[in-house]
Amino acid sequence: MADNTNMLTPSGDYRAMQRYWAMSSDILGGVESMRKAGKKYLPQFPNESSGNYKHRLRNSKFTNIFRDITENLSSKPFTKEVSLAKDTVPPQIKNIVEDIDRAGNHLHVFAAEVFQAGIQKAIDWILVDHTRLPEGATLADERKMGSRPFWVRVPAENMLAVYSDMIGGSEQFVYARIDETYTKREGMDEVEVPCVRVLVRDPVFDERGKTINYGPARFEIWEQVAEPAAPGKGKSVTWQLVDQGPITIGIIPLVPFYTGKRTLGTWRIAPPMQDIADLQIEHYQQETNLKSAKELTAFPMFTGNGISPPLDKDGNQMVLPLGPSTVLFAPMNEQGQHGNWDILEISAASLEFLQSQVEAIEAHMRELGRQPLTAGSTGITQVAAAFASQKASSAVQAWTYSLKDALEKAFKITAMWLGLKFEPTVYVNSDFAIEIGSDKAPEVLIKMHENKVISTATLRDEMKRRSILSPEFGNDEEDKRLEDELPGEDDDADLAASLPPDENAGEKLAA
After folding, report:
1. Is the dihedral of CA 209, 212, 217, 223 positive or negative?
2. In what residue span(s) does the DUF4055 domain sit (predicted)?
């Protein structure tokens, strides 16, 4: 690739999703990010002065319902630990699970971050990388360096371009370009260095120029370098290749996790949270308008009917003070006539209407977010609320299965790096639908047990499943504890203590 090519240029798929990613990032950034975006999300009214708009923007109100909904949805599968389900997990893999990303994060923590980002941004990526070894390094050197595979989370916004093709009957990645811009310290200063990682499999052509296969994967690392400015010219910026080499497992070790519908033949994903994000912007605007209207009600507009505006010494109209501790006069003319001061204020009905609009948008957002809704605050019946909650569980369960599949693919690539034959089975909790409307479930289960419909072990398993019992609860250990609590065989002292008292005991003692 030529040195003067802009490596940060995104693909068409990236540009198609860029608006949503930017909007969701601004929303997740909170009120300061929304205010910083200015007119992008809070338009200036026609004929509104710049000063008034800046005041309205500076005091805008933002309730982050989008973040609340997405965090609530993404937390459901992680009430129980994500783990490898088989006991026959190789020791090398077990060690990696405890520190999956070489930053001290357990698989559970890493998976939770991927899952939340996948819901909020529609797609997230896992790069299964390996510690770079110097050429000619031995196995002893590798162990000394702690060289091993590790996982890297690649946010959607950092995946500048990605392409896949059918190879050997399955879809495989043939090109990826990742933004890995970093900050380095130079003395007391921090310098941002644009950096891009390219993963590529070169196409193999037939005699007619048609792609018939792809070569083994390789990588390139490019950094942007600013050349010294020539006399009379600006500083030139070029991209230089700073590292390259083969990817020894032969494939591009990328795994996608996405929650929306993928457009066939592309990596464009329909964001499942798109409608909620759009409503969040409308909610922000309406909530800010309501706040501004309340402020105007507290400081109403005065009108002077039949009163000439006062002028300063230069003949310019003066600006009258408003607010408490201000006295207004209505001068009387020679005929005894005088003007009147009056107040123009927003009616209570207008404020109530704006408030109802804000509440309606919030209710719509939460319904779209498929969260449990109470009839008192939204006007939705308990049956409808339960139905919305069940839909929520169905949606999150589908995403949970996709996450499980992505994690298992990542472990397969990890095993390839280690030269192991390993078919991973990852446990991700998807059994959270029972939490919905299950208040009486424990009582029903206990009655079933009393009526000999289910066994004690099944009762315990169901209680554990509903998080009434601890995840560490074990049937065998509990049976042993119960056995220990049973009374043992009676000895002579126990038998004597159980006999009724002897009425003649005192006489016998005296004799």
Report:
1. positive
2. 272-418
Distance CA 247, CA 253 (A): 9
**DSSP 8-state secondary structure symbol assigned to residue 317:** B
Per-residue pLDDT of the chain (511 residues; tens, 9 = 90+): 444 578 999 999 999 999 999 999 999 999 999 999 999 999 999 988 999 899 999 999 999 999 998 998 899 899 889 999 877 899 999 989 999 999 999 999 999 999 999 999 999 999 999 987 666 665 565 666 668 999 999 999 999 999 999 998 899 999 999 999 999 998 899 999 999 999 999 999 998 989 999 999 999 999 998 776 666 666 678 999 999 999 999 999 999 999 999 999 999 999 999 999 999 999 999 888 888 777 666 556 667 777 777 777 887 877 776 666 677 777 777 676 777 777 666 666 666 766 777 777 777 777 666 543 333 334 444 444 454 455 556 788 889 999 999 999 999 999 999 999 999 999 998 876 555 445 567 788 888 888 888 888 888 877 776 667 776 677 888 888 887 787 766 666 665 666 666 666 556 555 5
Going across the sheet that includes 123-130, the strands are: 149-154, 123-130, 254-258
**3-state SS of the chain: helix, strand, coil percent to 5?**
40, 20, 35
- C-alpha distance from residue 413 to each of 109, 171, 248, 423 (Å): 20, 15, 12, 10
- Rg, the chain, Cα only: 35
Cα separation, 436 vs 65, whole angstroms: 21
Number of H helices and number of E strands within the chain? 16, 14
3 state SS of 14: helix
* Beta bridge pairs of residue 340: 305
Helix (H, G, I), strand (E, B) or coil at 352: helix
Task: Kindly report the backbone phi and psi dihedral angles of residue 217, in degrees, each rounded to the nearest multiple of 5, phi listed first.
Answer: -75, 150
Helix or strand (DSSP H, E) at 96: helix 91-98
The upper half-sphere exposure of residue 154, i.e. CA atoms within 13 Å in the direction of its Cβ, equals 26
Length of the chain: 511
- Whole-number Å distance between alpha carbons of 84 and 425: 6
Q: How far apart are CA 302 and CA 281, in angstroms?
A: 33
DSSP per position, 19-82: HHHHHHHHHHT-HHHHHHHGGGTSPPPTT--HHHHHHHHHT-----HHHHHHHHHHHGGGSS--
Q: Where are the domains of the chain?
A: 438-488
Q: Provide the token pair at 208.
A: 């007619």
CA distance 463 to 458: 9
Find where tokens 């779209």 sit: 368
Determine phi and psi for 88, rounding to 5 degrees.
-90, 35
Whose tokens are 């991973």? That residue is 424
Q: Which two tokens stand for residue 87?
A: 């006991």
